[in-house]
Amino acid sequence: MEQYCIYLRKSRSDVEAELRGEGETLIRHERALLELAKKMHLNIKCIYKEIISGETISARPVMQKLLSEVEQGIWDGVLVMEVERLARGNTIDQGIVAQTFQLSDTKIITPVKVYDPNNEFDEEYFEFGLFMSRREYKTINRRLQRGRIASVKEGKYVANQPPYGYIRKKIENDKGFTLEPLKEEAEIVKLIFELYTVGELQEDGTYNRLGTGLIANKLNAMKIPAKKRKDWVPSTIRDILINPVYIGKIRWNWRPANKKIVNGQITIERPRASAEDCILSDGLHVPIIKKETFDLVQSLMSKNPPRPIGEHGVIKNSLAGIVVCGKCGRKMVRRPYSKEKNQPDTLMCAAKTCNNVSCALYYVEDRIIKGLKEWLKEYKLSWKSNNKSPININAQMLAIKRLDKEIEKIRSQMDKLHDLLEQGIYSTEVFLERSSINSKKLEKLKKDKMAIESLVDTEIARNKNKKIVVPKIEKLLEVYKNLKTPKAKNDMLKQVLEKVVYTKDKGGRWHNSPDDFEIILYPKLPDSSDNRMK
What we know:
Blueprint: E1 4-9, H1 12-19, H2 25-40, E2 44-50, H3 61-71, E3 77-79, H4 91-103, E4 107-109, E5 114-115, H5 120-153, E6 166-170, E7 177-181, H6 183-197, E8 200-201, E9 207-208, H7 212-221, H8 234-241, E10 249-252, E11 258-262, E12 265-269, E13 279-282, H9 291-303, E14 323-325, E15 333-335, E16 346-348, E17 359-360, H10 361-386, H11 393-422, H12 428-479, H13 486-496, E18 497-503, E19 518-523
Parallel strand pairs: 1-2, 1-3, 3-4, 14-18
Antiparallel strand pairs: 4-5, 6-7, 8-9, 10-13, 11-12, 15-16, 16-17, 18-19
Helix pairs in contact: 4-5, 6-9, 7-8, 10-12, 11-12, 12-13
C-alpha cells in the first residue's frame, strides 16, 4: 500500500490572519488536507507540523527530517497546502527540495494540483511556484522591515522581549507596543547605575565605586534573579549600563544579523554596531534613569573599555565552545597565567557562584582524546555484537509495506464490524468478541512493524556513522598531536563533538589528584540513540 504524509507550516500571512481572529492555521490546514486524503483515498501515515518559521531549511528541523525520509523513498507523496510551504528560502534550498523529490519520485499533492517531479511540465510549474514564493517572501520582508523602522521612529517598541526593568504594553487606540516600568526591576536598574556612578557606602562615610564584575557579585549575593539566567554576569551589567532605553530612547539595529559562510555552512554573527549604524529615537515610554546619570556612565565606560578577545581575535583555547560546566551549564573558559608564575593554563567556570573546581587545560584535553579513542573502539565493537551482518534495507522496507497492507486489512474488518452491529446482524457480545480478536492482531502487527523499523533506522544510522563520523574521529586521533595551533585543534574537535560536560568536586592546595574529574563526551551522531561516553 502506498504511504503518504502531511506537512504543515505557518506563513507570515497565517500569523496575521490568526491575530484577526480567523482561527488556528495548522488545525484548519490539517482538516483540509485530511479531507483531501479521504477524497483521493490516500493512506496518511504521519503528519509533520513545523512550529518554527525559518527562512532556510537549516532553521527548520521538521523539514530536514521530512527531506531525509523523502530521500530514502519512504513516502510516495507529501500533502501540503501550497508548494511554497516546502521551500521559501534561497535558490539553493529550493534546488535541494526540487532535486530530493525528483530523484525519489515522490509526488507533491496540494488541493489545487498534484505535482509529479518527473513530469517535465509539472517540474517547470513547481520550480516557477518556488521562484514566485521567494519573490513574495522578499517583498513581504522588505515591507516588514520598513514597518519596523517606521515604528521605531515613532517611539514604539518593536522587539519581542522587553529589557530588564520594563514590560511590553499594548498602545491604546493604536497599533504596536510601548514599554512600562516594572517597579521591582526598575529599582534594581537604578541600583546598578548608582553603584557604578556613585558607589557603595563604606563604614567611614565615603563611597566606593563598583565595576561591572563587583556589581554582578553584589546582586548575586542579594539573591536577586537576573532576566534570562539564574546569576548575574558582568556582560549583562554592562549591557544595561550602555542601553539608552533607560533614558526613554528606542535603539534599533544595534546587533544586526550578519550571515557568513564558514566551512560550507551559513552562520549568523551579531556584532555590536557603531552609533552611526543604529537608529536612535525618542520613545513613548517613561525613562528610569536621568540623562545626566546615563551620560556620566558613558564617560566612565570610555575610560575603561572592555578587554579585547585575545590578540586580534586569535583562539588560544583548543576547547573553546566545547566544554560545558556540569554544575551550572555554562561554557568553560581558559584562564591564562603570567610567565613569571610558570603555571599551565586552566579550564574554569567563569560564574562566581559556581563551585565546579578548575583544572589544568591540558589534563582535560588529554582526557578528551583518550575518551574519543575508547569510544571509537567500543562503538566499533557494538557493530559486531549487535549486528553480525548488515540487514537488507530494501527487503525490510518491503516487509514494512506488507505489514501495512495487513494492518489496513484488519482496520477494514473492524470498520465492517461496526456496520454489522448497526444492521443487527451481530449482537453486542459477538461484536466485542470479534473486535477484541482484531485488536490483538492489530497490536501484534504494529509491534512487528516497529521492530523492523527500528532495525532499519539502526542500519541507516550505522551506515551514516561509517561514512561520516567514524572517519572524522579516526583522522582526528591520527593528526591531533601534530596540529600547530589551538584553532586547528578546536575546529577538528567541533566536527566530531556536540559538547563535553566537565565536573570536578575536589580541589585546593592539599588535594593531590589534579586529574580527579569527570567528563562526559557527546559525539556528533546522526541517529537519536544515547551517544554519551564517560
